[in-house]
């Protein structure tokens, strides 16, 4: 089985977390892996064009209004081909939160994990991405170099101070 | 009857202070540098800040070795006048890429924010509404 190109939202992403449980069996970090998952269930997708065709045909049967939502399309492909054909009425009952789970909000994660971060990274600058610390350093120039050499994309950068957070500046 | 439409809702976050819990409007702001690289910085949405402020340590992301390479300016703070250094920066504030002045200065230690998002060259590009009872900041990019 060959799928020759990847699909943007899956390339290098943590797909199984983003698209939810029902599709995770055919999830992966690239279209190649997803294709491999489909193959396990005897769904023949021999080329990228074939996968395109499968996705497009599924979208058209659903009214053609969801062609950009690749995770949703894959879920529908899964349901149509592996589980069973589903009716528009059943689609309407699927909660949006199940179809498109929100990505990890690193701001929320920062607050929720502040105590652990202070214990582990006090006095350091950290880069956070997808709910984990992906780099740390004692200065911004050092952290900047690590981020650039490792190719980390768009991390949230902040300083984990050893002292209690001070809110006297603007709020509190 | 005036009607305003907002496309986005930014939630306030509850934080603990010595005076008890406070809800703060935090926002994730992109800082674009070099050849289109970017990092995000947690910032406080601050209607009281005339200009956006960043921690002085972010100077390398503005192409400077130290924060004092900027133009010195005096700014008023809750603790009295303080010296800041003015630079130009490219920020992404929800969905908009904005060229704007920023002041680098010493800020109190606090991992919850790396700067204050102020008015100059930014607020005019948006419409904002505060919904205090639900701790929400409403935003439109089409004011």
Structural account:
The complex is a heterodimer of chains A (172) and B (143). Chain A has 172 residues and is mostly helical. Chain A folds into two domains: 8-99, no CATH class; 106-160, no CATH class. Chain A has helices at residues 15-19, 21-24, 31-40, 48-61, 70-83, 88-93, 96-99, 106-112, 114-121, 140-150; strands spanning 124-129, 132-137, 156-160. Chain A has a three-stranded antiparallel beta sheet with strand order 2-1-3, with helices on both faces. Chain A is flat, with a radius of gyration of 21 Å. Chain A starts with 14 loop residues before the first helix and ends in a 12-residue tail after the last strand. Chain B has a domain at 29-125: Cathepsin D, subunit A, domain 1, CATH 2.40.70. The model of chain B has no long low-confidence stretch (mean pLDDT 90). Chain B has a six-stranded mixed β-barrel with strand order 4-5-10-6-9-8. A three-stranded antiparallel beta sheet of chain B has the order 1-12-11, with no helix packed on it. In chain B, strands 2-3 form a two-stranded antiparallel sheet. Chain B has no helices and twelve strands. Chains A and B meet through α8, α9, α10 and β3 of A and β2, β4 and β5 of B.
Summarize the structure.
By secondary structure, chain A is mostly helical. Chain A is built from ten helices and three strands. Chain A has a three-stranded antiparallel sheet with strand order 2-1-3, sandwiched between helices.
Order of helices and strands of chain B: EEEEEEEEEEEE
Which protein chains make the most extensive interface, counting residues with beta carbons within 8 Å of the other chain's beta carbons? A-B, 35 and 38 residues
Low-confidence runs of chain A (pLDDT<50, min 5 residues)? Answer: 1-37, 62-69, 94-101
Report Rg of chain A.
21 Å
Compute the CA-based radius of gyration of chain B: 16 Å
Overall pLDDT metric of chain B: 90
Total domain count of chain A = 2
Bin the strand percentage of chain B: over 45%
How far is it from the N-terminal to the C-terminal residue of chain B, by CA? 17 Å
- Could you tell me the number of beta strands of chain B? 12
Average pLDDT taken over every residue of chain A: 62
The amount of beta strand of chain A, in percent, is 5-15%
Envelope shape of chain A: flat
* Main sheet strand line-up of chain B: 4-5-10-6-9-8
End-to-end Cα distance of chain A, whole Å, is: 60 Å
CATH architecture label of the domain at 29-125 in chain B? Beta Barrel
* Fraction of residues in helix of chain B: under 10%
Q: Strand count, sense and closure of the main sheet of chain A?
A: 3 strands, antiparallel
| Count of alpha/pi helices of chain B | 0
Q: So what's the CATH class of the domain at 29-125 in chain B?
A: Mainly Beta
């Amino acid at each position: 089985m060959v799928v020759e190109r990847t699909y943007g939202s899956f390339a290098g992403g943590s797909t199984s977390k983003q698209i939810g449980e029902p599709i995770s069996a055919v999830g992966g970090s690239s279209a190649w892996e997803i294709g491999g998952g489909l193959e396990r269930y005897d769904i023949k997708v021999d080329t990228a064009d074939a996968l395109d065709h499968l996705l497009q045909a599924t979208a058209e049967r659903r009214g053609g209004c969801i062609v950009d939502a690749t995770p949703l399309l894959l879920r529908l492909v899964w349901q149509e081909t592996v589980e069973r054909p589903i009716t528009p009425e059943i689609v309407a009952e699927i909660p949006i939160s199940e179809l498109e789970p929100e990505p990890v909000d690193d701001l929320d994660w920062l607050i929720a994990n502040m105590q652990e971060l202070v214990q582990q990274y006090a006095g350091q600058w950290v880069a956070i991405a997808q709910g984990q610390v992906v780099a740390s350093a004692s200065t911004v120039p050092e952290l900047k170099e690590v981020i650039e050499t490792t190719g980390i994309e768009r991390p949230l950068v902040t300083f984990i101070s050893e002292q209690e957070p001070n809110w006297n500046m603007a709020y509190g | 009857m005036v009607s305003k439409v907002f496309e986005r809702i930014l939630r306030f976050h509850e934080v603990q202070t010595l005076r008890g819990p406070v809800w703060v409007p935090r926002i994730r702001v992109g800082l674009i540098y070099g050849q289109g690289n970017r990092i995000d910085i947690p910032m406080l949405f601050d209607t009281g800040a005339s200009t956006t402020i960043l921690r002085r340590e972010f100077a390398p992301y503005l192409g400077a070795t130290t924060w004092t390479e900027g133009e010195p300016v005096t700014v008023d703070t809750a603790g009295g006048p303080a010296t800041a250094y003015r630079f130009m920066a490219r920020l992404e504030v929800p969905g908009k890429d904005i060229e704007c002045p920023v002041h680098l200065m010493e800020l109190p230690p606090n991992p919850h924010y790396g700067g204050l998002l102020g008015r100059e060259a930014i607020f005019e590009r948006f419409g904002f509404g505060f919904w205090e009872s639900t701790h929400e900041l409403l935003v439109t990019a089409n004011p």
